[in-house]
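JOB MANIFEST
job_type = single_chain_structure
chain_count = 1
residues = 247
[input]
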Amino acid sequence: MNTRFNPTVNGPLHVGHLYLILLNYYTAKDSGGRFIVRFDDDQLYWSSRFTGVEILAFVDGMKEDIEWAGIVPDLYTSEHEERAANEDFIQQYLCRPKDIMADGPINAPRYSPTIKTIERPYPYTTYLTGTRVAQDYREGIDLLIRGEDLITDFSLYCHFCDVAGIRRPTFQYVSRMYSVISPYGQALADLSEVSKTQGGYSIRAYQEKGWNPNDLLSMLAESALEDPRLGWTYENVKRQPILRSVP
C-alpha cells in the first residue's frame, strides 16, 4: 500500500505528527509500498502570512526532524511544485466543460475551481480537497491514514473521486494524540491536544532536551499502541493515544 504524510507548512512538526508518520511509514514498508512526504505549501492562507524564506525553512526543518527520527521517505514532494499538474487534472476531470449545460449529459454537478482565495474558510475548501485528490491519484496513493482532517473532507474527497471516475483510496481514521500534562509542565484537568498551537510538543523540543530518537520512539509506542511489541499498525493503535512525557 502506498501512503503519504501531508503536513501543512506553517511551523515545526510535533510528536503527534511523528505518531502519524510512523503509522504511514510502517504500513507502507510492511506491505511493500511507498511512503511519500508531501508538503502542503500551496495554501494562500499561510503563504500570505509567511515569507517564501520562512516556508522553505519550515520545510527544511520538517525534513531534518523526520530523518532524525530514522524515517527515510521514498519521496519528498510538494503541492507548490506540482501545482500545474494538479490543476491540469482538476480542469480535465473535475471541472464542468463550459459548453455543456445543466440539463446536458453530465448529471452530477462538477467542481468550479474559482474559490482559491484567502477569504475562504480555513483549512478546507473545495480547491484544497480537489488538489489532494489530484495529487494522491497522480502519486498512486491507495491508503490514507489520517486523523481529524479525514473527517473534515472525507465526503467531498469521495465525491471528487466519483466525478473523476477514479478509484477511491482506502481510508483509515486514527484518533489524535492528547496529553495529560501541558507543554509547560503542569497537570491538566482535561486532556490537552498535542498541536502546533499548544507549543512545547515539537520534535525539536525533545531533541533540545537531550532525547535521542530511540527513547522518543519508545515513548510514543507506549503512548499510542495497545501492544508496542506488535509494532506500528493501525489495528494496534489505542482508541485514545495519550502522550506519556513532554520535554
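[summary]
The mean pLDDT is 86.
The helical segments are 15-30, 44-47, 52-68, 83-94, 126-138, 148-164, 203-208, 213-224.
exit_status = 0
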